[in-house]
């Protein structure tokens, strides 16, 4: 089963996502993590119950709930067309993507300056960020020569494999 350290890290990752519950079962134990009241996460570790007798089944009392009254109100619909220019502009930009699932860090330390910012010039070997996965800190390189146009993720944010991190205007 997971150590307490691994469990803490798992809870941290789940707090950064929209996952409401998570369950792992194996031969020796069972672990269920369920979100309640916003971002608060509760973990329950249950060893498997070994019984030799038949399970006990009890019936819950029937409860009648009052029918809900629905009120229909007209809703105004607003159509907004996105400008075509921004789509064309982003198509001409190179996307630096995350090579793995992990946590994005813009700087090498909490009190350090970020590796790159908007309008910074980068070379193919320039380190632009770190993606932490399983306590391994992986330096991500720009892979192209150009200028950082936009940073697409927040420091400390969980990122997915292939998720764009930066937009670069190639030189």
Structural class of the secondary elements? mainly beta
Q: How many helices does DSSP assign?
A: 2
Q: Roughly how many Å apart are the termini?
A: 51 Å
Unreliably modeled segments: none
Strand content: 25-35%
The average pLDDT score comes to: 76
H/E series: HEEEHEEEEEEEE
Strand order of the largest sheet: 4-11-9-6
Q: Largest sheet, if any? A: 4 strands, antiparallel
Oligomer designation: single chain
Shape descriptor: elongated
Give the radius of gyration: 24 Å
Helix content: 10-25%
Number of strands: 11
Give the helices and strands, then pairings:
Blueprint: H1 4-15, E1 21-25, E2 30-35, E3 41-46, H2 84-91, E4 94-97, E5 102-105, E6 121-122, E7 127-133, E8 136-141, E9 146-151, E10 158-159, E11 164-170
Antiparallel strand pairs: 1-2, 2-3, 4-11, 5-7, 5-10, 6-9, 7-8, 9-11
Overall description:
With 171 residues, this protein is mainly beta. Helices cover 12% and strands 32% of the residues. It has 2 helices and 11 strands; from the N terminus they run αβββαββββββββ. It has helices at 4-15, 84-91; strands spanning 21-25, 30-35, 41-46, 94-97, 102-105, 121-122, 127-133, 136-141, 146-151, 158-159, 164-170. The strands form 3 sheets. The protein has a 4-stranded antiparallel beta sheet with strand order 4-11-9-6, with no helix packed on it. A hairpin with a 4-residue loop joins strand 1 (21-25) and strand 2. The chain is elongated.
């Amino acid at each position: 089963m997971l150590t307490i350290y691994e469990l803490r890290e798992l809870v941290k990752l789940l707090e950064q996502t929209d996952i409401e519950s998570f369950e792992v079962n194996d031969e020796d134990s069972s672990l269920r993590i369920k979100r309640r009241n916003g971002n608060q996460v509760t973990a329950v570790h249950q060893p498997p119950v070994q019984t030799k007798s038949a399970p006990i089944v009890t019936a819950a009392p029937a409860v009648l709930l009052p029918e809900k009254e629905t009120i229909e109100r007209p809703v105004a619909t607003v159509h907004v067309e996105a400008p075509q220019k921004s789509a064309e502009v982003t198509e001409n930009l190179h996307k630096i993507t995350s090579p793995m699932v992990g946590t994005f860090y813009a700087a090498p330390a909490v009190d350090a300056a970020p590796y790159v910012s908007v309008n910074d010039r980068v070379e193919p070997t320039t380190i632009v960020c770190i993606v932490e996965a399983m306590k391994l800190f992986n330096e991500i390189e720009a892979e192209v020569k150009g200028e950082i146009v936009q940073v697409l993720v927040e420091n400390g944010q969980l990122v997915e494999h292939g998720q764009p991190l930066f937009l670069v205007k190639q030189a």
